[in-house]
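Open question from group meeting: does this chain pack into something compact, or does most of it stay loose? Before anyone orders reagents, we agreed to write out a predicted structure and look at it together. Recording both the input and the output here so the notebook holds the full record.
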Amino acid sequence: MRSLRRVPSNRGLSLLLPLIMGALAAVLVTDGAMLWPGNIVWLQHADLAQSYLGWAFYRHDAWTLPFGAAPSYGLEFHSSVYYSDSIPLLAMVLKPIAAWLPEPFQYFGLWVVLCFALQALFAWKLLSLATNNVTARVLGGVFFVIAPPLLMRLGGHMALVAQWAILAALYLYLRPTTKHQDRWWTALVAMAMLIHAYIFLMVGAVWAADILRRFLPARGLRAGTMLPWRDAAIEIAQVLAATLAVAWLAGFFMIPSRGMQAEGFGYYKMNLLAPFNGAGWSSLGLAFGEAPGEYEGFNYFGAGGLLLLLSALPAWWITRARVPDRRPIWPLVAVALGLALFAVTPTIGFGSHQWHLPLPVWLQTRLAHSSIQATGRLFWVAYYALLAGAFMVLARALPARWLTTLLCVAVALQLVDIGPAVMGLRTTLETRAAVDDATHLTGPFWSQAGSRYTRLRLVPTRILAPGWEVLARFALEHRMSTDDIQVARADWKVFNRVRAEQLQRLSSGAPEEQTLYVLDSSIIDVVARAARPQDAVFTLDGIHLLAPDWNQPLPAGAVDLKPPH
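Structure tokens returned:
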């Protein structure tokens, strides 16, 4: 593909039309109920609860350095708003005015609208590199705004709805280079770091490809148009410095490298048939078997998207001779291909069939504990590059009338194919935003304990304990710090030390003052025997508790767990 020429367009239309298109798509897909800042009903469980509670604790924490630290959400685990997946870009902007925000307040719904609007905007700008036909760009933008991998993330990964950042990176790569290219890349890469690590990884990879594109000589270009060594070094230093600075500010480095290790590499991957696998999204019956963890690699193009890609193949073959300079595109192709290969390995799935690559033991061990576990997401660069590339090839090969006709057919096919699934998603999101099915701890004891204790601990300490959201919400309501949380990463050395210390404390009858303990059933007997006379050990509302220095009758309905003297 040749370096694409910028086409003239009305600047106001270029901004307003796609922004409105994206915002309307967000409202139509979500029904709008989840968009209101005061509605937290839909943020009660699992990953959504993690994101909201991470922000809700963080907004009430004292000012710290790094700015993203959230000591009340995780206690000694050195938790930060970065590792609760609370979109630190927004959390850190809003924390200075948190005292004036209503309670409760969530920004995730507004974030969805912003992401859809930016998704449409950068899709528009990408497609504008190929044609100034407004109708064609609107129709082409549909495939980006309702891309199934984007919509699927509305189920629980709000930060990963920011796939517009990948489109912005592709646009910076493909557009004619400007003298401020380095500034735009610095802003985009740093911003991606403040959104999510996976978004940063993909945006950073495209930036690296763009550095290479501008640095290498190309046929037909004067030597003076190449990026000089000095300018390349300055840009690299600038981008890295800005990214490291914002990462430190957000609390990214509060977890040491050993804490970045995770389980799941090779499990949360992409199946080779993922681009064709509707996996419940295709009303036309496009579906193939897959391994359990391959839902993270859901990258279905839709029947209309597949039609575009297939149509682009003969168009590319016919027009390939018109592309004299291939230098601008091959670094991007290399990066997209590399990320795609990473997305499908080390166990390669083809439908229900799985083949494990024979890797050296040392490499397999290292990869098994890699910080990058959901590798199936890494196909997004190739996904959007293929869609954009197909549109550009077709725009080059077809007259405007034929291009518009093909796009109309493809959009209609896409809506027929994934439309029912989108409506099903809308119903699910609408119900989730309207029905409060969360458990809340209420009653005289819980109110009294919430005002009496300043910390809530789970013993033995666990990350993602069953029912953790219930206890975390209780702690939040009473402004208690807690270690009963869910986070993406933790400092496991500190975690194990704290776990051992707390077990030792309770087994020796020396609980912390001002701390309410939630006990696992496996340690009830040990804690009950070691408890002091003034301590209460009992079960209430199905929860085993140690209330140090309670010195009061047990609450109504409680079952005493202390052995008779």
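Observations to bring back to the group:
The chain has 19 helices and eight strands.
The longest helix spans residues 400-434.
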